[in-house]
């Protein structure tokens, strides 16, 4: 089910840049949270298919009533019929969406929990491969990779791939996010990945304490506010 929003008849082209910025935020969040095995939030996952469809709803939905459905698959069919995507791309997205949704349902049924993360143990991997009609785990992950690669390609072609940030910019962004976030102890922020679990917890605690003391100072409130802009 797609989230509803107001369909505008005319589009401000600054929206395109906003979508690029949103895409960058999604990509950074995926890296920050280590979501490479998450079939919903990871690159090429369910969320990106939903994002692709909603981009066309945002840009053309005000003029094309067929794009105003809250159901993804009918909207995707309308996108293809309007030649906004090639038939091949639309079909690849449709097949990938059905595959990922089926996989998600089976994932959640294994241990009866809300999850979109692939299992790491051999037993649940074997059970999932069998339920998805594959001979083994490598065959399943091979098919999954192919689907998610197709989704990511369309996603990048639609919004534009401007993620070619330098290593220094990437590191700076990770530290900025580390400073702004809630700093949970189980955070897997890549900038701290080289540390042991105990050292990582100590660093997170140190940053959290420093941030609290900084915010409590009169000049610190303004400095912290500016750092989040």
From TrEMBL:
Pfam families for this protein: GlnD_UR_UTase
Entry's Gene Ontology cellular component terms: cytosol
Any one GO BP annotation for this protein: regulation of glutamine family amino acid metabolic process
Documented EC number(s): 2.7.7.42
Keyword Metal-binding: no
Source organism, top-level taxon: Bacteria
Alphabetical UniProt keywords: ATP-binding, Ligase, Magnesium, Multifunctional enzyme, Nucleotide-binding, Nucleotidyltransferase, Transferase
Ubl conjugation is among the record's keywords: no
One term of GO molecular function: ligase activity
Enzyme class per UniProt: transferase
Limits of the PII-uridylyltransferase/Glutamine-synthetase adenylyltransferase domain: 20-159
Name by which UniProt lists this protein: Glutamate-ammonia-ligase adenylyltransferase
């Amino acid at each position: 089910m797609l989230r509803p929003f107001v369909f505008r008849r005319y589009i401000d082209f600054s929206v395109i840049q906003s979508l690029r910025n949103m895409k960058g935020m999604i990509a950074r969040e995926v890296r920050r949270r280590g979501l490479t095995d998450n079939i919903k939030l990871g690159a090429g996952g369910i969320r990106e298919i939903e994002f692709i469809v909603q981009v066309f709803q945002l840009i053309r939905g005000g003029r094309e009533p067929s794009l105003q459905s809250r159901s993804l698959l009918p909207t995707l069919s309308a996108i293809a019929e309007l030649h906004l995507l090639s038939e091949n791309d639309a079909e690849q997205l449709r097949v990938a969406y059905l595959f990922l949704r089926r996989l998600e349902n089976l994932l959640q049924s294994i241990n009866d929990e809300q999850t979109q993360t692939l299992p790491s143990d051999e037993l649940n991997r074997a059970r999932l491969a069998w339920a998805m009609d594959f001979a083994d785990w490598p065959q399943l992950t091979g098919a999954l990779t192919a689907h998610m690669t197709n989704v990511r390609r369309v996603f990048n072609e639609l919004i534009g791939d401007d993620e070619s940030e330098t290593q220094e910019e990437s590191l700076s962004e990770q530290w900025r996010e580390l400073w702004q976030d809630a700093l949970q102890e189980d955070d897997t922020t890549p900038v701290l990945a080289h540390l042991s679990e105990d050292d990582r917890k100590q660093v997170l605690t140190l940053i959290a304490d420093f941030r609290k003391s900084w915010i409590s100072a009169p000049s610190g409130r303004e400095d912290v506010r500016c750092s989040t802009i």
